[in-house]
């Protein structure tokens, strides 16, 4: 089945991609979960190019015959279409599939069921696919299976992107060409000496500075012998100190090969090639003749003094540039460290969730499992999906990319309401004290995220107090926001909500890291390290900030600052009727979704709930179907992120063209929503349940 690589460069790149996938510890678990969950006999993570399908990691329970590194011609697979369209292909039964029943690929490789999900890197680059096949028909085209494949494909893409960033940095650092370029560009002479002081290498700049025709005349000679006799003792002493581990610097006089006088500054240091080789010395020679001559002239005239000042200014500028370059390198290093920490945290938490799903699926496959236990495991899978959605939400909150639903509310009332329910969070031995002023205080923010932030800070306080102490919730209005973490303050006014505990406090070396994602000082299993990250992200995205004051052994105070607004702007958000039935009664709904699997899933849900649906594959198609009078539709349910016109633009157009037609938007994440909000439209967050979808549509089409 294998075909040769088109060229060695492409082969090297493929080998690097295989190595990158094999370095992801979660991939074998993902392939095992895929096979056990779906019943498929073969699953693989593949690199897909214009002409090749290459297996990077496989699980083969049906003797399909491919191992990591095995290749197929891409034209004999279904992945050419997936690579070009960027969408998944799902086939329950080839013989019954309208699109692929006559396709030659199933017969060529002997499969009856097939699923392949594209793996797309964060920058939009198509890497390959996560796929599975089996000679028997299977039930694959379900929201759970497709969603699981999408989650795994995105997780693999995340790891590949992090790996590529680290590998790129390492490759540049170790590159021989990189080292050669540095030596060629160096303004100084670079000399490599043996441990006994014999010259083994001199760079081109050193040859030029010493006015040599080539380095052949000096290689192998003792380095000290290249100096005048009066300078050799100083040179030999510096080499001895360098061999002992010091960095030795000397200045001395040594004429060039042509007899021209030169003053040199030479720095000596020791090193071992590759860290383990024989001891070597490096001598960096800098021509300081001009500096020495300038110093002599300085004692004779004021003009030379001005010249020296100009030289000094140039050196200061060069030093400043060097410092700026070093700071930039440090920032890049810190970014790479943060990516590594984030990758590790995501992998850890998602592997925990995968463990729950895999174990639950194992038990659900047992035919003798009692109904009560079956419900328990089904609930575990459903709860795990909710936890995964919450994890991604917390990550988006820290990155300030979550979609907020800002509304105006009175902070004091919400603070009292949260305080009333904190007993269930903190326990009976923690006394909760609330201090709220009589004056009303209004802010415009996402109420749900505000309450979540308070609970996260309260949970942090509870753990710091080991379950016993006093938690004080205090609100002050019309406050100024002080400088926080080096950022300038603001006059406001701000509503300041503080939570003060009597716990153990935070060690000074940890205060600067407590808002980092996955950073925690708690015991294993006591927290994810994302709670305070959510508080930080919510505060920043809402136009405020969060400050922390702590003294070890005396307790900690977190203060959340949110911009305060005038009471006249206060409006109540309509309450959501959770008792509203999700079942429709034949209302016509236009579903706008470019993804085939999601579109089928959404229309099927709505049809099962009693709605009459029509599916449009993009916003332009939807506008044609609606026409000038709405086309008889009673609501539009649209995805936000689509090629061409997006969901927000479609909803705005319909608000102008058909103001009485309700529009409901759905999105897992959109940078437009994160930056600008939902513009007053109903928004359903992914992942959503059938009941949530039915209820929000029922409310949208209800008489007003």
From TrEMBL:
Pfam family, one: Response_reg
SUPFAM superfamilies noted in UniProt: ATPase domain of HSP90 chaperone/DNA topoisomerase II/histidine kinase (SSF55874), CheY-like (SSF52172), GAF domain-like (SSF55781), Homodimeric domain of signal transducing histidine kinase (SSF47384), PYP-like sensor domain (PAS domain) (SSF55785)
Gene Ontology MF terms: kinase activity
InterPro entries assigned to the protein according to its UniProt record, in alphabetical order: CheY-like_superfamily, GAF, GAF-like_dom_sf, HATPase_C_sf, HATPase_dom, His_kinase_dom, HisK_dim/P_dom, HisK_dim/P_sf
Catalytic activity: ATP + protein L-histidine = ADP + protein N-phospho-L-histidine
Residues with 4-aspartylphosphate modification: 639
Entry EC number(s): 2.7.13.3
Domain Response regulatory: 588-701
Protein origin, superkingdom: Bacteria
Location of the Histidine kinase domain: 345-566
Record keywords: Coiled coil, Kinase, Phosphoprotein, Transferase
Stretches assigned to coiled coil: 295-329
Protein name: histidine kinase
Annotated source species: Methylobacterium crusticola
Gene for this chain: rcsC_27
């Amino acid at each position: 089945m294998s075909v040769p690589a088109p060229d060695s460069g492409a082969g090297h790149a493929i080998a690097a991609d295989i190595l990158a996938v094999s370095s992801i510890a979660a991939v074998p678990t993902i392939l095992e979960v895929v096979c056990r969950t779906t019943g498929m006999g073969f699953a693989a993570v593949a690199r897909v190019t214009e002409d090749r399908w290459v297996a990077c990691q496989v699980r083969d329970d049906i003797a399909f015959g491919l191992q990591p590194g095995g290749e197929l011609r891409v034209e004999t697979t279904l992945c050419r279409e997936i690579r070009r369209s960027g969408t998944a292909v799902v086939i329950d039964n080839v013989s019954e599939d309208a699109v692929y029943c006559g396709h030659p690929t199933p017969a060529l490789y002997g499969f009856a069921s097939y699923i392949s999900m594209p793996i797309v890197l964060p920058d939009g680059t198509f890497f390959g696919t996560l796929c599975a096949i089996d000679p028997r028909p299977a039930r694959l085209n379900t929201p759970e299976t497709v969603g699981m494949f999408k989650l795994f494909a995105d997780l693999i893409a995340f790891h590949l992107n992090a790996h590529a960033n680290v590998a790129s940095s390492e490759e540049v650092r170790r590159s021989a060409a990189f080292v050669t370029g540095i030596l060629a560009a160096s303004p100084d002479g670079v000399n490599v000496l043996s441990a006994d002081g014999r010259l083994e290498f001199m760079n081109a700049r050193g040859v030029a500075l010493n006015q040599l025709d080539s380095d052949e005349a000096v290689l192998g000679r003792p380095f000290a012998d290249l100096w005048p006799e009066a300078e050799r003792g100083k040179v030999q002493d510096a080499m001895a100190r360098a061999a002992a581990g010091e960095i030795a610097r000397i200045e001395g006089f040594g004429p060039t090969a042509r007899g021209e006088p030169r003053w040199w500054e030479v720095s000596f240091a020791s090193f071992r090639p590759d860290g383990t080789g024989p001891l070597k010395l490096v001598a960096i020679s800098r021509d300081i003749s001009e500096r020495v001559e300038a110093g002599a002239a300085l004692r004779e005239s004021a003009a030379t003094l001005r010249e020296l000042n100009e030289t000094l200014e140039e050196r200061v500028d060069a030093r400043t540039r060097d410092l700026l370059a070093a700071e930039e390198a440090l920032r890049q290093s810190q970014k790479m460290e943060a990516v590594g920490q984030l990758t590790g945290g995501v992998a850890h938490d998602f592997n925990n969730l995968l463990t729950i799903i895999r174990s639950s699926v194992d038990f659900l496959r047992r035919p003798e499992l009692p109904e009560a236990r079956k419900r328990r495991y089904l609930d575990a899978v459903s709860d795990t999906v909710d936890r995964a959605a919450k994890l991604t939400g917390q990550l988006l909150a820290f990155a300030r990319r979550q979609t907020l639903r800002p509304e105006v509310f009175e902070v004091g009332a919400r603070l009292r309401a949260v305080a009333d329910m904190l007993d269930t969070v903190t326990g009976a031995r923690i006394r909760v004290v609330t201090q709220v002023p009589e004056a009303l205080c209004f802010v415009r923010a996402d109420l749900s995220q505000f309450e979540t932030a308070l609970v996260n800070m309260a949970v942090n306080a509870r753990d710091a107090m080991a379950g016993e102490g006093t938690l004080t919730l205090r609100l002050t209005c019309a406050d100024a926001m002080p400088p926080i973490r080096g950022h300038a303050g603001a006059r406001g006014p701000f509503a300041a909500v503080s939570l003060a505990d009597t716990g153990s406090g935070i060690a000074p070396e940890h205060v600067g890291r407590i808002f980092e994602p996955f950073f925690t000082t708690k015991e294993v299993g006591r927290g994810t390290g994302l709670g305070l990250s959510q508080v930080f992200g919510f505060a920043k995205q809402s136009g405020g900030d969060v400050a922390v004051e702590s003294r070890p052994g005396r307790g900690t105070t977190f203060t959340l600052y949110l911009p305060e607004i005038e009471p006249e702007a206060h409006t109540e958000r309509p309450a959501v009727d959770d008792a509203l039935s999700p079942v429709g009664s034949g209302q016509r709904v236009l579903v706008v979704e470019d993804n085939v699997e999601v579109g089928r899933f959404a229309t099927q849900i709505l049809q099962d709930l009693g709605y009459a649906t029509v599916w449009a594959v993009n916003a332009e198609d939807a506008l044609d179907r609606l026409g000038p009078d709405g086309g008889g539709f009673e609501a539009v349910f649209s995805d936000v992120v689509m090629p061409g016109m997006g969901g927000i633009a479609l909803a705005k157009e319909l608000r102008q063209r058909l103001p009485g037609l309700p529009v409901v938007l759905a999105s897992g994440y959109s940078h437009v929503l994160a930056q600008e909000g939902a513009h007053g439209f109903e928004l359903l967050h992914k992942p959503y349940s059938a009941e949530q979808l039915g209820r929000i549509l029922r409310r949208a089409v209800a008489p007003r």
